[in-house]
């Protein structure tokens, strides 16, 4: 179901283009609503004041980064099982998004930490594991590029790049639960989860609404960007004459 | 493959150190008082700022940090962040002196995962 609708959205038909436009407008609308809600309607935090509003950037960035790495995991797995290079392109595009958003989460977190904790950076389990996650997926993208150059292959259109990349993409995901649970497993400067807290979220309703709007806006915008990037990769790879045959070759083992 | 190996190694290291409890960003007052080997070494100490214990002595900020029934008096040199106040968590960096006072030169604020507006209306009360 998910598979079918995703692939349909990538086609050049008028219906798919209309659906993509609708999604882009919905993302823009949600972003505007989240900006108003997070910037003005939500009250400033009792302890942190207006600095707490950085949450409406920091949390969506971190959430979409996790989601992007989940797409890398799923797409890499789908590629390894089915051997369809389209999944490899999804994995690449999602990793690119994930790296940018992880960097954004670290950047907004540093400013928030500076304002509220009194330090830009701490050698704290959450911060260190997030930095490792950034390194892991930056390394994944570097690996793809290095493989493509060494083997004179086209990144996103060649099984010799896609296969090792898929293995690295799956392995890198091992860090995501480490990052998420770091605040539970280790004593950390970083506060624990609020929205995903086991009990009723200890957050004001207006703040929670602004946060959910921001997360929804970021998620939809990231999905639009992902589709756009995959379409771009496919168009760039299209002229290859043997690609349509190569696309279907199973990844096989080894 | 090298990337996978490095990731697995780092992940394994993190998990084992978590099990052995060696990755501790800060120590609690109870741990610091219970381990004489730490006295005189530069460590991080974390706890809640005891309400009523905060006072300023010249350029020193003095307060007590408490957790799980243990308390340590802290003499902090230099101004803490603006969000620093009684009742919230803080982590200080420095040494426990032989007189039982923790002398620190760096303090960061730990806040909880609760977010809410100010309970009283946001009216500034003029001191004058």
Automatic annotation (TrEMBL), chain B:
One GO BP: cytochrome complex assembly
UniProt keywords, alphabetically: Cytochrome c-type biogenesis, Heme, Iron, Membrane, Metal-binding, Signal-anchor, Transmembrane, Transmembrane helix
Give the matching Gene3D superfamilies. Answer: Nucleic acid-binding proteins
Task: Answer whether the UniProt record assigns the keyword Heme to this protein.
Answer: yes
Q: Which GO terms describe its molecular function?
A: heme binding; metal ion binding
Indicate yes or no for the key word Secreted: no
What GO cellular component entries does it have?
A: plasma membrane
Can you tell me which residues the record assigns to a coiled coil? none
Q: Where in or outside the cell is it found?
A: Membrane
Quote the record's binding site residues for heme.
Answer: 111, 115
Q: What is this protein called?
A: Cytochrome c maturation protein CcmE
Q: Which organism is it from?
A: Micromonospora terminaliae
